[in-house]
Amino acid sequence: MTNAEPPIHETCMGFCRTCGVVHSLPEGRAADHGREMMDLFSRIRRLDYLASDEEADPQLSFDYLFQEGRGHMFGVLDCLDPEGNQVVLRAFSSLRDGVRHIAGWVPPIHSDELWDEVVLPAQAEIKALTRKIHANAHDPATAVGIREERKRISRGLVATVQDQLLFTNFRGEQRFLRDVFSNSGDIPGGVGDCCGPKLLNHAALMRLKPMGLAEFYWGASTPSGSRVQGRFYPCCQEKCQPILGFMLCGIDELS
Ligand SMILES: [Zn+2]
Ligand SMILES: [Zn+2]
User: Which domain of life, per UniProt (predicted)?
Assistant: First the structure.
C-alpha cells in the first residue's frame, strides 16, 4: 500500500517497496562538482564542454538550446569505482530536438532503438498534425478532429515509452517502470528524463558506487521563480521520488 508511506521532502530519496524503508543519497561532494560545472558553463556557454572552441557544435550552444526562456536541469553524481577511484558522472535533463548523446554526459535510459523506431516517428506525426491544425484554423470542426488524433498519438507514445523503460538498481536488478513506480494513479510523462535517474541508472550499469548527488538549474529563470539559474534543487517529487526507492536499492551494501 502506498498510502501509508511517510511524506518525503529531502534531496534524493524514495520509499523502497522491497525493503520497506526509505533509501537516500546525500549531496556529498557533488555540489562542488556542480559549482565547477557552472563556472565552466559561464565561460563556454555550450553543452559540448569536452570539445574545443573550433570543434563546438553550434546546436549545442546555450544561445541555441535556451531560446524562448528555456533552461535546463543538470546533475552531477560523485562515485567511486570498484578500485576506490573517484568517477564524476554528469547528466542533462532530456532536451527537445533529440539531443541525446554528447561526450562527457551519461546517455538517456531508454534505448536508441526505442528513440529511432517509436519516439521520432511519433514526434514527426505530432508536428505534422500541429501544422495541419494551424492550416485549418478557419475550419473549427476539422481542427477539433485533428486535435483528437494528435492527442491519441501523443498518449500512445507516452504509454509505449513507459512500457519499455527499464531501470537497473544497485543490486543489479532490472525492472520496468510500471513495476517500479510507487505512487498510485497515472504515471506522469517524462519519468526517467530527469538527471538523478539517468545518473543512478548509468552508475548501476557501470558498477559504480554513488557517494553524492546534486542537481542544479541553468538558463533563464522560470517566470514563476520555481527555477533560478545556479540554484540546487532536490530530485522532483512527481516523477523521481516514486522510482528512487527502487533505483537506490542496494546502495548501502556496496563496498
Ligand atoms: Zn525528476
Ligand atoms: Zn530496497
Answer: Bacteria
